[in-house]
Amino acid sequence: MTATFQPVSRPLSISSVADLEPMLEDAFGAGGTFRDLLAMLGARPSCLISGAVLREALDATQLRQALDEFLPYPQLVESLDEIRVFRSGAQPVIEFHFAQPHMIPQETAFGVVTVQVARTLSFRIEENGDVTLQPGDMRVRWFGVTENLVVRIRRIEGPQGVQDLLQVSAGNVLSQAMPLTSLTMPTRPARKAIVPAAVPVPPPATIAVTVHRLPGRIRLRVAGLYRNLAQKTRIERHLARQRGVHAVSANILTGTVLVQCDATISAGDLELRVSAIVAGVEDSASEWVESRPWHLLDVAEVARLQGSSTTDGLDPAVARQRLEELGANALPDVRRRSRVGMLLEQFSSLPVVLLGASALLSIATGGLADGAVILSVVLINAGIGYFTENWAETTISSLSRGARPVARVVRAGVEHDLPGEELVPGDLIVLKRGMPVPADARLVATDDLTVDESALTGESVPVAKHAGVLVERDVPLGSRTNMIYRGAIVTGGGGRALVVATGLATEVGQIQRMLAETEQPETPLQRQLRLLGSQLALVSLAICGGVFVIGVLRGQGLLLMLKTAVSLAVAAIPEGLPTVATTTLALGVRRLERRNILVRRLVAVETLGAIQDVCLDKTGTITLNQMRLVSVFASMRLYLHKEGAFRCDDEAPCTLQADDDLLRLLRLSFLCSEVRIVSTDAGLTTRGTPTETALADAALDAGIDVVDLRQRFPLLRAQPRSEQRGYMVTWHDDGGAGLLAIKGAPDQVLGLCSLQSRQGVVIPLTDDDRARIVTENERMAGQALRVLGVAYGYGNDVPEEQRNLIWVGLAGIADPPRAGMQHLMERFRAAGLHPIMVTGDQSATAHAVARQIGLRRDGHLEGLDAAQLEHVPPDVLRSLAQRLDIFSRVSPAHKLRIVQALQRAGRVVAMTGDGINDGPALRAADIGIAMGQDGSQLAQEVADIVVRDDNLQIIIIAVEQGRAIYDDIKKALHFILASNASEIGVMLLATTAGLGEPFNPIQLLWINLVTDIFPELALGVELPETDVMARPPRNPQAPMFSRADVGRIGLEGATLIASTFTAYGAGLARYGIGPRASTIAFTSLTAAQLLYAISCRSEQHTMFEPAACPPNPYLPLAVGGGLALQVLATLLPGLRRILGVVPLGPFDWALAAGTAVAPLLISEMTKELSRPRSAMRRR
Amino acid sequence: MPAEYIFTSESVSAGHPDKLCDQISDALVGHYLRQDPLASVIAECAVSTGILFVSVKVTADAVVDIPNTAREIILDVGYDQGAFNGRTCTVMTSLSETNGAYPRVDEMALDDGDLDRLTAQENVTLFGFACTHTPELAPLPLWCAHQLMRRYDHVRRQTLRYLAPDAKCQVGIAFADHQPRRIDSITLIASQHSEYPSLATLRADLAEHVIAPAFDGQPVVPDERTRLQINPEGMMLEGGPALHAGLTGRKNGVDTYGGFSRQSGAALSGKDPTRIDRAGAYAARHAAKHVVAAGLADLCEVQLSYSIGIAGPVSVRVETFGTGRIADDKLTERVRQHFDFRPGAILRRFNLRRLAGMHQGQFYRRLAVYGHVGRSDLGLPWEAIGDADTLRA
After folding, report:
1. Would residue B83 count as lying in a domain?
2. Which residue out of B72, B90, B238, B362 would a mutagenesis test of the A interface target, given it has the greatest number of A Cβ atoms within 10 Å?
3. B35 to chain A: which residues are within 8 Å by CB?
4. Residue B163 belongs to a domain with what CATH number?
5. Which of B321, B315, B342, B317 lies closest to B332, judged by CA?
6. Quick check: is A769 catalytic?
7. Average pLDDT per consecutive 10 residues, chain B (393 residues; last block may be shorter)
8. Of A475, A843, A884, A890, which to mutate for an interface test with B (greatest number of B Cβ within 10 Å)?
9. What is the number of domains present in chain B?
10. Residue B75 falls within a domain, yes or no?
11. Does the model's ipTM exceed the 0.90 cut?
């Protein structure tokens, strides 16, 4: 500790924007640049500028843009803690301090480069005002090499006059210079947004020139964009925010910007906008969306800034103008993947390209039929892939869209309904129970307003809202109790609020914008298939080339050898690989859809099988998102309420007639509530606040005739709970002195009681009883129940302190877990999946639910309770995340951090979500699972799979299918590799040994057609092996085929080659080189390959264990059909002629049959032999 | 020991990271015991910059909201702003709940013979100490240091709001003939939220509002020769976990006798009272205090050694450093006769399991600051000397 007690002499601290403004005025008043700002800072005596002040100033001035030019990374600026100016010797130094070091991946002309920024950036100011960044503070890493970034801001005198330049270089690879823009400080920044902006002075139009335009699609060439990353970022960021612009993509290699926008936007308009951005003139719309800390402002101040009134609202004319200026209050639909892009993707794999080339070669060499066959294979593959993906996409987008909200608004003093899209900032809206909040707004007046913000914060308990002013600046959204946000729902009370943000500028809109910045990771199978396909194609091509060269050297005809080589390539290149993968996955989609699981991305099916961690949302996913009465403590007994029935604490069902106090409690709590009873076809249902409906539902479960109850005890008056009084009181006419029912905070209610009801008898409430009730209250609260105390009394006008109320009991209410969760967690663990609960709730609630569902492993539970997860260093979070079972009090942005932390730790993560707040995390997760029934459209659109009936059990089915599908693809690949290797091997050996050609080109294509595609497809639809969910998840980093697998495939391929060669050799010995020997080899190989498919059904189990693999009717069909075709080929004269085969004698048939069965038996035997070892390894 | 010497002891404020961890650990123990007096709890904490780690191993019929309890303590101690504060810090909980493995034996329901069923579950040697320095029969150096820290925490809440919660102090007492004569030195290190006020103001404020009142009306007060050092190395801004890490059980000396006697290596905080290393330390103090209160010695150290699986202590020894009125051996025999040191007996004598319930769960948490022994403010059962007369006879 002693080391930390150092004398501290702190420089002058700048802690308000007012202090900062004169400095900024100095720097920018005369149109300076970022260099002038730094030089000016350096000229001052030492000072400190806090990050918070700086960020506030950023919003008010163009300093943000200046920083953007220098540090085009928003996350960096957001984590800026302070700027410190001091002198080191005679030289001024400016230090930028950040909350944490950053690693920023950056797409550049050189591929993805990582920019590493240390926690401190130090600038030295030289005498002439030039600025140099301390070497080593900023580094770049590419191709595994780390280089210091050398950054200098210099003033040079060129032909165009004096210019400030930002020079960046790293080693001797990268060097770029970029002119710094002159900046001006706007006057009265806050008002600027309200006044319709003056048309910006048109900058020289030569900055942006239209290259071409289609309706809604304009390409511009922008001067200074070429190889200028900062400019790219700036243009994309600023332009994407503007009205009518859907997507912007700037290319630093071509120096052009592609803009997708409303067709009404002209190219000239866009040129002006881009020029304005490049010149540094912000337009009004982008200024408008900058959020202000509205919760810190007084209501009157908000109204003033918005040019509105807290009583009369906006003037309709102003509202119309703003609507025109700012656009509709609507969120754009999440963009669908384009059909053209999807189609092109199908043709972009290397094997397909090579096959296409082979087809062309075939056609060029006269093999029109061969070429046609190959081309049609390619087209069929692409067609299947395209149609299945498109079909899945269409299925998702055909899901019902959210209803358009209607807002109640006051304009010019008149209140009326308005479509939600027509709201503008400044509108005064009226809030009523049950109404969705149509835009972000600052509350003006409230009347017991409570709001369900679960869609935004994940907190299922409604939040009370007030119109007061908050003082803390950086409070999470959920704690901004004087603000309401779009996407929330009013659950109680009412109020009025001034809209401060609409459309994309709302918090929900911000989340949608975040989505655009979140990339979808490549799934493991995509990666592996891409690599494997390319490698195999290259190897096959090389061998085919070898066969060609050797054949030519041995004196075979050039054209014949070319044809043979091309046919061999067609047979050898696993062109079935994409087909098998696509069809298997597509069939998986169908299988999953039958179980009510919609798959949005085809390959997600297979990633399901690799999942290691499952992040589960608590509210609405693990739990019902419905408050239910869980337990009652009455007559000193504990009753549990489960699935509509009451039990005593020893789990024995209790007879309700005898237990008077439980019924009394339910009756009183129903009388003392505002629940409305609605009669529907299905019986009575209750409407009201979650707590009260929970109690009322329990009353219905207990068989209480609630309608009759209300009639017998008509309500005289009610006193709602308030901030001072934590309970509600109602007075009822009971035909006598009057009945008084009271329910609320247990300690307060208990304080009013002097008597208690015990088995229906009223007796005094002793201190011991009181202590027992208090302890029970704590115990229930500890189990995360919301506890209410219920009491009653008689008399209508008795003063509060003399009421002598009668205590009845405690009622504990919670959002209970769904049925079957415990079983689900067990199955997760059996399958080696780690369930992680993520919730915005308090840790007590989270832990209580975790206990109930048995989330813990061996009684051990690790939780992280973090309101500000961003303050946990990323590497700490990464190492913690793998161990944790519970994350509590997390906000939407944190879910993303959790997913990313797990992914950095090398885990494959699935994440469930239903709220709009889950979007970014769902998209970033390897598998984003949207819960469909109540889930928002946004969550469904970004997720990989959508579970339509909200049944979490389905995740297990999905994982099982995912694993089976991966296994199936692997089985099919295993088969393809071994059988193709045998074809190539036989050809290569025979050609090299000068033993003639065992197969002619047409035979090779026949083998390809008969033995490859159909057995492959049949293997691709194998059902899950029975033990698939008792295995741990596969390692996503490991290649699909381990070294041992490759050895097996090699061995089995060699067995096939050996047996074919045995047949061919015997044929040669008997008949010499010629069609007869060739026909024997051809028949032997075809049959051997077909039979071998049976062995590929399972890696572990042999064909003698029928129970391990569920029957697959397609495989006998494929194998039997293939064998029949082969027999026909040697029997039918027409086919014989085309294939160039001759009839076989009985000896030949026996030889072919024997050599065909041998590989199957040998491979099953080796499986049996290697099993004890592999079984031990597994254990 | 030479006839004249100086002895220093250190104490820390409630906001010191190590003490913060002790308080959170003991608050958790208290909450569990309050719900289930037979709970078995081990609660350990570690804190650094923005993260608090809590590891709890518990067998209890109770549910405690660990992060929330921790946050309440952090806020209550005074970390409600700055880099480390109770609202925004991250709390990582590692909770192991086992069921039924631990024998749930209630000593209150047992007769004397059956108390043997509760055996020691730790191999440990413990020390209890008492001396005639103060009315509480506690060693003066630590007692003074605790007074300073109490005063500091009070002043920080009430008047000098610029002070941050983290502070520590050291008091050096000059002894002559084994009797404390005067205060030789006081070193006080305080932390503050911002760089204002200046060091000079801080020093003047602390001297006036903390040091002077702390010794007000005490027999020994700082004199003109007392060396007073306040933040000798300059300001400490913020302090607390933002600056240095903390760990449960690191302030054993502060919790016991300030190094004036021997002390066990086992920590006191974060353990339920069935742990003999906690209950035994209290019992040892109880015995030592009785010896001194009975006038049988001026200084008394009681040593207890326990072995796992054995109910009674394997060794009881009393050492009076030559101040005893009767021989140490006889005194040992008398203490052994008089006090039942079996774990169950200690639990029953001090009612350790139910103290938490009787003080709204706050009992153990209060123990965790300003010492577990030698204090008169909590009515601690091991500080009561009701049986001193019988010991004398």
Report:
1. no
2. B90
3. 775, 778-779, 782
4. 3.30.300.10
5. B317
6. no
7. 84 95 95 88 91 92 86 92 85 83 73 84 93 92 94 92 93 91 94 88 92 86 91 89 92 92 91 92 95 93 94 93 92 92 92 85 90 90 87 80
8. A843
9. 1
10. no
11. no
